[in-house]
DNA sequence: TTTAACATGTAATACGTTACATGATTAC
DNA sequence: GTAATCATGTAACGTATTACATGTTAAA
């Protein structure tokens, strides 16, 4: 049983949105799926090709007056069926996500506490930036797209980023306190 | 500028603990670093070899009466210096962690809401199991190892797992409510 | 005797990124 | 003219997993 990657389904799913070209998919992923998925052109184009070969998508080349020609992909009936099957398939085990900060802290026993606190501050800043970005997107969705039926799912996925990032930010502060307390002892 | 992997430093760091063999490192990682790092034998043994070649570690073969012979590694002065440098190096950018559930939810607009709720329940159960495991380890550390100086860092890394998992569990419930609300409309 | 735990290692494969390569069109 | 955006693609490389391969010792 191979641990089949979901990347293929990310592309297939994007074919059900307004994304029809490899280029626009990349933009969509970098923009809206950014906090839970990423993908490079080095994967997108070969996967699109293979989706056509498998019968899950079709292509046609569209000439444009004002832009370079593009390949427009659309999902086939078979592709939609395949997507449905994947959506209904049970989730795989949650994989451990590597965390550089935690790895460093784990080996920081003989290290100066000041350095650990500095690392925690670095992380907190990065997390705070991320949090603000998500908040900005959420505001945009709730004010501009409140009528869209789809927006519930957008909000849900964004909220995941927000709540877990918030928890991580608070943890940074907590951990700094713990380290300062220990220093005094 | 290559995006140098931290895996080498995970091994180097383990050499500062009671772990001296590839086998015991694997156990340690699967046990105690489990929520923020993982590694396979296919990486451990080649990396240990390369650490020796780089002068960061040394080996000796130890025969045992009751067990198969093992290779015991120790960190060298140079290795410790290298580890220090890494500990003090600024954190890389936080990478986006792929999340199968969020990917599925993002493409669930035309899907039956019941299926989305089912996926959220699956995730919640997995998260709850994980949370309980972390709690068990934390109890063990706080009751049995409270005297150890090192325990602060263990607690901190564990707490990260606890607070982010807790946040994710709550998010699952929230999201289920949101989907149910929308269904009624 | 056979299973589990201890112990080490390599080869094939999968997955993903980055660099490379090309070229059109638009806006400054 | 030149930078930015649009647009597609491949080759080389890095990273990590899995399967394969081997063997010891202890406990049931």
From TrEMBL, chains A, B:
The UniProt entry, under InterPro entries, shows: Tscrpt_reg_PadR_C, Tscrpt_reg_PadR_N, WH-like_DNA-bd_sf, WH_DNA-bd_sf
Q: Which organism is it from?
A: Guptibacillus hwajinpoensis
* Every Transcription regulator PadR C-terminal domain range: 98-179
Give start and end of each Transcription regulator PadR N-terminal domain: 11-84
SUPFAM superfamilies found in the cross-reference section? Winged helix' DNA-binding domain
Q: What is this protein called?
A: Transcriptional regulator
Which classification does the entry list for the species? Bacteria, Bacillati, Bacillota, Bacilli, Bacillales
Domain of life of the native organism = Bacteria
